[in-house]
Design a protein that fits this description.
Aspartate Aminotransferase, domain 1, four-stranded antiparallel β-sheet, seven-stranded mixed β-sheet, 13 helices, 2 domains, 344 residues, globular, alpha/beta, Aspartate Aminotransferase, domain 2
Length: 344
């Protein structure tokens, strides 16, 4: 059996209810490329959350969801404003640039969250043929630093987008964790604040694979099915993505999974704050804890419960909790941390 880690919520397995849904879908034959009852049910559940006129497209992975979502909003001479920590800027290699032909404009975000003021300062040289033209503001909710934009902060950013006639894209690979943190409905901090396209994550919240692209403007969605095919994200046996989302969106499983991982992150924060040698660097809004550890204890701890070093220069580490993280695992990690500090 593989030991648990704090590396990523991508490391976790599949929630039993989701696995059961996969097994149920794995009987007999079903129409391919999304023309099946499981996909239809998942789409209806998404529409119940976001509105009947919402367009929903299931895709295979998060990079594909982000790239294709942005493709619906841009042409090759455009630029996309995003956090300097954004997944599309840091962790998706050059996939956005390769497939979109667009320039990414990084905006400084010390705590993971861009401000409306910082974004506006990066919007320059509009209608100048010598410069990439700003077209999209893209942000992550929750952010790469585990922080969560408030509804008011999102409204302020949306106002900047409206002022300059820009589109608003949200990378929601951990959107369920954000919804639990905000204690509000999905639509309240997406569609209602002016988001045009949303990547809705499933893999980090108990699914085996699968993400969804949610589009709130029918005109924007007009060509998405062609982009999805071109982008190699049209899953032939889509019933297996649809069945997972259907399970995740049934009886608020998305919420209980995210609530648990958020709760475990807060417990982990509480344990780490007991050690004066450890410094928490970010607000623990969702399911990630960021902290500066003494350099000499990092490797021994990683050998027991692997986690990533976020910033090698400062020894800042990232500890992620998942739907299956347990209190005992956190207590054990804290005990090992204490031993390493004593023996250091």
């Amino acid at each position: 059996m593989h030991k648990k880690t704090f590396a990523s919520d991508n490391y976790s397995g599949v929630h039993p209810a989701v696995m059961q849904a996969l097994l149920k879908a794995n009987t007999g034959h079903a129409a391919s490329y999304g023309a099946d009852e499981y996909t239809a049910d998942a789409i209806e559940k998404f529409k119940a959350l976001f509105g009947k006129d919402t367009s929903v497209y299931l895709v295979y992975n998060g990079t594909g969801a982000n790239v294709l979502g942005l493709q619906t909003l841009t042409q090759s001479f455009h630029s996309i404003l995003c956090s300097d920590l954004a997944h599309i800027n840091v962790d998706e290699s050059t996939a956005p640039e390769k497939f979109l032909g667009c320039k990414l404009i990084p905006v400084s975000a010390p705590n993971g969250k861009m401000t409306a003021q910082a974004i506006e300062q990066r919007i320059q040289r509009l209608d100048d043929q010598h410069h990439a033209q700003a077209r999209v503001i893209s942000l992550s909710q929750s952010t790469e630093y585990g922080t969560v934009y408030t509804v008011e902060e999102l409204q302020q950013i949306a106002a900047v987008a409206k002022k300059y006639d820009l589109f608003f894209h949200m990378d929601g690979s951990r959107i369920s964790n954000a919804a639990v943190s905000l204690k509000t409905e999905f639509a309240r901090f997406t569609r209602d604040v002016g988001v045009d396209v949303l990547s809705f994550g499933g893999t980090k919240n108990g699914m085996m694979f699968g993400e969804a692209v949610i589009i709130f403007n029918p005109e924007i969605a007009r060509y998405f099915k062609f982009f999805r095919k071109q982008g190699m994200q049209l899953h032939s046996k889509m019933r297996f993505i649809g069945a997972q989302f259907s399970a995740l969106l049934t009886n608020n499983l998305w919420e209980s999974n995210a609530a648990h991982s958020n709760q475990m992150a807060r417990l982990l924060e509480e344990e780490l704050r007991k050690f004066p040698e450890i410094r928490i660097t970010q607000s623990v809004d969702a399911n990630g804890v960021f902290a500066i550890f003494p350099q000499n204890i990092i490797e021994p701890l990683q050998q027991q419960n692997f986690f990533y070093v976020w910033n090698e220069r400062t020894n800042e580490v990232r500890l992620m909790c998942s739907f299956d993280t347990t209190e005992s695992e956190i207590r054990d990690f804290a005990a090992r941390l204490r031993l390493e500090l004593v023996s250091a």
